[in-house]
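Figure S7 source data.
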Amino acid sequence: MIVMKFGGTSVGSPERIKSVVNLINNETPKIVVLSAMSGTTNTLVKIAGLFYDRKQTEAVAEIDILQNKYEKVAEELFDSNESKNEAAEFIKQRFDLMRGFALKVFSISDEKTILAQGELLSTTLTHIYCKEKGIASVLVSALNFMRVDRTGEPDTYYIREQINRELNEYPDAKLFITQGFICRNVTGETDNLKRGGSDYSASLIGQAVNAEEIQIWTDIDGFHNNDPRYVTNTKAIRELSFDEAAELAYFGAKILHPASVLPAQVANIPVLLKNTMSPEAQGTIISSQTKGEGIKAIAAKDDITAIKIKSGRMFMAYGFLRKVFEIFESYQTPIDMITTSEIAVSLTVDSTVHLDRIVAELKNYGSVEVDRNMTIICIVGNNVMTSKDSISKVFKALNDVPVRMVSYGGSRHNISILTDSAHKNEALNSLNGYLF
Ligand code: ASP
Ligand code: MG
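Tokens for the predicted aspartic acid complex:
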């Protein structure tokens, strides 16, 4: 069994859905995981926001526009009246449900229900299309097996039990279609794995069924050695280890959801990143094998906040860092980068939801400085530390870039640099010149 996940742009139009069905229509047993058509989840978030603000008329207007879009998709996608009618009925039912929220007090659970509609629509339309083409597909609802526990983390034991139970009901089936992103929470309500979570779904499903491979199909031909939005002439990387991929995914490479690396790594299932627009391109394979030495790729993560705590009390004292970290822990705020000196510690956070309260508590331990709008530039490669010249090239490249923090030695495959976001473009291009 393999898992094939297709992202929003890969199912973004009737043509794209047809190409996906071309790619999945073969004898290999597979579970196909689909995102919502591109743009849909954003619109659903907007609709939920309007309901929260009690702007019922505007919300319903947005729902009508989106419904219209799906009606056009169905009209274009299907040939037979039977398929058209089946799709029209499903679409109407989904959008009537959404309009129904105009009549009640809007809750978080209603928001989650609205957000789930994109994946329910894309999978159902694709399934009906397979049927029309005489391709035997089985539509399995992710709501029957994907579940998060009390802490919001996937309940892997439950997922394994339930998905295998579902699949075993169709012993002859070769092609299963299911939704990415959506799940149920511990009380059984519809929930989701957070934005971009379809990759995570695919990886969790792969782990649950012991898949031979997890394929993530997007609109770019794999992980690139630098950010193509800022640097020209970037190249796709053929092979990455799970650790390298995790660093790159977390530090900004948008192609893969960072959480999706771990389930595949735990189950030792290779992850193949492929491009639906050019399926013949090799893509990137992520596996437990580490190949090659030296710097492979650069990624950047924006909207980082740096916090410096300076204290005489830190001097030759023990227990200081624990107290600092406990404050972040109590606000469930992860720390990304850390650097220390004898009298100060600098660290970075991605989430600023609790920043004011964190800073207020940190002030009990020393003076606190906060720098916003920072970017972490992450330089990744197997044995990046020991490979010749790596660090000197990095510093040469960053000669004219004001560097706020450097993290080197945390792992064997990563050097991280923190700079003001205003210098990101310059830094990425200069590093590209020196390193590749
Ligand atoms: N449709 C969801 C989103 O846009 C999940 C995904 O595409 O991965 O965030
Ligand atoms: Mg995505």
